[in-house]
Amino acid sequence: MRHDRYINNDSGAYSILPSWVLDKVIEDARENDAKFVRKHAAILQALVGDAEFVARVVVDEPLTQAEQSEWISRVRWPLRVKCGRLLVCGGFDPDTIADLEEDESAFVTVPKGDYTVEVLTYLNTMNGLVLHAEWGPDARLGAWFRRDHAGRAMPSWLASDLFWDPEEDPGHESEWRDFAASYRSGKLAIDASTTSFVGVIVHLLREETPTDLSKPGKDWFFPADAGLRRPERFPLGIPAVGCEDTVSSEVLQAIKSGA
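User: That's the sequence. What structure does it adopt?
Assistant: Structure tokens below.
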């Protein structure tokens, strides 16, 4: 089972919560975040910024080759989903959770059970766009893409980032500074077939004895760089299904006007 959901977020974190714990979280009012994580009733994930993203919940099936090879950070933690309903929520604010509790469309229905959850983050997220700097200057996004995928049109999420940060594509800065003209003339080849990409995968696994669990931070949020790794090849991105665009409006407008 796969289910994609666009997550609105104005917080430097997000939470993964089974519905049975929501009333307890609301009543607790952020007095003791640790108890929910310790009791495997919540996964709290830190972000480097407050950008929105698409979360994909995957249950009872393996990841695709792209989903497995392209992630840049990973958290593993047990979660008790005894209610069969899961909420992925921007932040961990009791008032926001109380509002979402009344919105049935905010939940993903999954089989009841105790799971090990893999939370996988991808390069096209705010976390990825910041944390990739830890891999050094040869991981500048445009140059990295051009080395690994020479002659291929760029995914639209990458164009969206380079539009705002041309220095990530050394030697092509002037083309990005006049993006609309460069796109129309063909100087910049952009794959506009997909404009919504999965940023996070929440992979529910049935494991009797979970191993290789991640370590929460002192605040019991898992750090943004937990399990950080550099993929072998530049990740092209995982297309989202039935979700809002995750590409910037400026790039979308230029693509549409130049089509």
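The longest helix spans residues 249-258.
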